[in-house]
Amino acid sequence: MNRSDGRKPDQMRPVDVQVGYVSYPEGSVLFSLGLTRVLCNVTIEPGVPSWMQSRGLPGGWVTAEYAMLPRSTHVRTPRETMGPRGRTAEIRRLVGRSLRAAVALERLPAVTCIVDCDVIQADGGTRTASVTGGYLALMLALQRSLGGAAADFAMPPVAAISVGVLEGEMLTDLNYEEDSRAQADLNLVMNDEGHFIEIQGTAEKNPFQPQDLTRAIDLGWNAIQELIGLQRQVLAEHGVTGL
């Protein structure tokens, strides 16, 4: 099939990374995946959650926040002033779990790393962009703030991508127009060793076959390897190596 933006079925949208987009956070990245743009800022604060203190657990903690700005979408999305809606809370948990898998928490000092992912423009794939961009911002923050190399605290790099079925064809990295019509869609989070951190998959219309899942994972893994290669390149350009 011909995709609306001219991409091949297994082709991601163009990726752009702007490091240091905001001056004040310990790590800041504007991550763009096509027209989707997510601002990822990391704050490192002393102390750990009370449940870690009460259990006497060593190390630090990584958590994430996620929000969509009101005009990140075609029509205004109201601010969530009364607390996060279900979708927002789900994505926060996904991003947090994914980024904790990228850090050896027990090797951190007693600090909490807060990764704020704010969608300033949405065109599909905001959660996967948050994971991939959030990883970059987190590694930059660890390198700059903890008095050592990020590699001292890091596990294998982590990235995420979406895969979906549209008009019977498997596509990598769906934009909003494709995602809204997809018969099935899948979000994959994997590390550099090819291990799964999260698989989210739904058949929107007809159930999909086991071979479809296998094909989707293969396509997603190819894209994730490409993203991790880009992560390493960006980080190396800013003095973060050994990951």
How does this model look, in words?
- It is a single chain.
- With 243 residues, the protein is of the alpha+beta class.
- The chain has one domain: GHMP Kinase, N-terminal domain (Ribosomal Protein S5, domain 2), CATH 3.30.230.70.
- It is built from five helices and nine strands.
- The chain has helices at residues 50-55, 86-100, 126-145, 176-179, 210-237; strands at 15-19, 27-33, 36-46, 61-68, 111-121, 158-166, 169-172, 184-191, 196-203.
- The chain has a five-stranded mixed sheet. A four-stranded antiparallel sheet has the order 7-6-8-9, sandwiched between helices.
- Helix 2 links the parallel strand 4 and strand 5.
- Helix 2 crosses helix 3 and helix 3 (126-145) packs parallel to helix 5 (210-237).
CATH architecture field: 2-Layer Sandwich
Number of helices: 5
CATH superfamily: GHMP Kinase, N-terminal domain
Helix content range: 25-40%
Sheet/helix structural class = alpha+beta
Strand percentage lies at 25-35%
- End-to-end separation: 38 Å
Strand order of the largest sheet: 1-2-3-5-4
- Biggest sheet record: 5 strands, mixed
Q: How many structural domains does the protein architecture include? A: 1
Written as H for each helix and E for each strand, in order along the chain, the element string is EEEHEHEHEEHEEH
CATH topology: Ribosomal Protein S5, domain 2
Low-pLDDT segments: none
Shape: globular
Give a count of the beta strands, DSSP E runs of length 2 or more. 9
